[in-house]
Amino acid sequence: MQNFTNIFNTASRFNPSAVLSFKPLDAPARKHLQKIYGILTIGVACTAAGCWFHVQVAQIGSFITAIMSIALLMGSMYTTDPYSDRIDPKRLAMFAGFAFLKGVSLGPLIYYSMAVDPDLLMTAFYGTLAIFACLSACAIFSRRREWLYLGSILSSVMLYMALVNLGNIFFRSNLVFNLNLYGLLLVFMGYVLLDTQVAIESFYSGYRDPIKAAGELYTDLVAIFVRAAQPALHRSTHLTYAMGLK
């Protein structure tokens, strides 16, 4: 209960100028976070470009593009000097390529959502941005290391859900599928809190790689978007067929 109380206490201290300046942190940490969110913004823009490419130019999103994106992600995470906050252009280019291919891989979901109801896509997108911004602000303005305990809890929940999802291959229960979907949405929301504070504490510990931190937050952001879009699409599709519109 104390943690939930802290969330509301943090919200009561909110003001836009504080968010833009990251005032609870010292100047080097603020600069580090600005680098992280700048790289994250580049990733989101590249993902949007990848989605557009799949929908408007060539529908090439597939398992192969997903594998290629993972390879680029692994390359962008590799560094010989994790204690430097310098942004390596080659690693940044690989991260941008990863984000673009991730967008291409998400293309089929985007194409389907536009065919069902384009408004649902925008609702999921803006909802994801709002969730991510609020949770990031909560992590930044909370006491240091307050959310780090979530690591073991979230990892355990992820393992449990993976086992349940594996078992559901044979039972094909819609209830289990929905519980897994919404449960993972909550898990990745928790990871936004965790990864934001990990990025801050890693900086103070001397580990100052902004690209790796941005990659972790980017993964959380995309996971939230996908799981926010899927339930809305399912409800819209069922409603459309129930009303006899298709």
Q: How big is the Rg?
A: 19 Å
Main sheet makeup: none
Anisotropy-based shape:
globular
Mean model confidence by pLDDT:
83
Q: Which range best describes the helical content: under 10%, 10-25%, 25-40%, 40-55%, 55-70% or over 70%?
A: over 70%
Q: What is the total number of structural domains? A: 1
Subcellular location: Membrane
Protein name: Bax inhibitor 1, variant 2
Keywords: Membrane, Transmembrane, Transmembrane helix
Membrane topology: Multi-pass membrane protein
Describe this structure in words.
InterPro entries: Bax_inhibitor_1-related. The protein is an all-alpha fold and 246 residues long. It has ten helices and no strands. The protein is globular. It starts with a helix and ends with a helix.
Could you give a short description of this structure?
This protein is an all-alpha fold and 246 residues long. It has helices at 2-12, 16-21, 27-57, 63-77, 89-105, 107-116, 118-141, 150-171, 174-204, 210-242.
Keywords:
transmembrane, disordered N terminus, Bax_inhibitor_1-related, 246 residues, 81% helix, mainly alpha
Reconstruct the topology from this structure.
Elements: H1 2-12, H2 16-21, H3 27-57, H4 63-77, H5 89-105, H6 107-116, H7 118-141, H8 150-171, H9 174-204, H10 210-242
Protein name: Bax inhibitor 1, variant 2
Subcellular location: Membrane
Family: Belongs to the BI1 family.
